[in-house]
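Dear colleagues,

As part of the handover before I leave the project, I'm documenting each prediction I ran so the next person doesn't have to rerun anything. This entry is a single chain, and its sequence is reproduced below.
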Amino acid sequence: MPPIDLRGKPIAITGASSGIGLVTALACAREGMPVALAARRQDRLRELESEIHRQGGRAISVLCDVADPSDCRRLVDRTLEAFGSIYGVYANAGYGVEGSVHELSNKAWRDIFEVNFWGTLNTIRPALPHMLQAGQGHVIICSSVVSKMGIPTLAAYTTTKAAQDHIGRAMRIELHGRVHVSTVHPIGTNTEFSQVVTEHSGNRPRTARSPEGFRQTPEQVAEAIVRCLKRPRGEIWTSWTARMLAAVGTAAPEFADFILRRRFLPKIAEMKNAGKPAASPPA
């Protein structure tokens, strides 16, 4: 089957002001896709919009907080107004926070779900009726390699990534033959993500970081997403090794727990001995 010609097929991308979202927007524009850029930092969106125009592409920027359903509806409306249709939507916006499961506040848990999980649904829902009516489309959800495992001190983030993975898998079956649905499972990526995690975690020292050798550039992720847009598949992985490790961890959870204890318990103990609380108490 020949690859899908992406020229003229509009895509809306959330979290487009930096990192994977920004680079993916550029990659899609180079393939001839009109791009609706969405994020909360309007100045960065306008810079990216101008760059796409300079490269000969088409783009609009839309101020959007994915936790607000009305903002996401407006994103889809603006895409339709500017480009006449919407073929793709990439639910990419999200952040991480560190803290032990029992020590993170209820507010911290709710806040990250509002953005990572509900923000994904808010982004997808207004776009789907137009895709279904057109009889074509592609929903892409930025999950993570850690969607397949619970990472100590990062469980709030990994839980939202698992939730995204689950709805993506369910939607692939529900929408089969009508709209493509893919989940992205990046390993550690060289973006602002780590800095944002630190800020959301009260500027505590990080305990959960990707090991050396398990990092990549956002360009690698963007290239994989474009390949998937051309030849749709259910899951987008950028590291075969990480995918196999995730599979082994699922098949042998005791072994995975042993490895995670070896990696994280010394760091958690070191932080506690330094007198730094893991997080604020539940509220």
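Residues 2 and 85 are 23 Å apart (CA to CA). Residues 196-201, 277-283 have pLDDT under 50 and may be disordered.

All the best with the project,
I.
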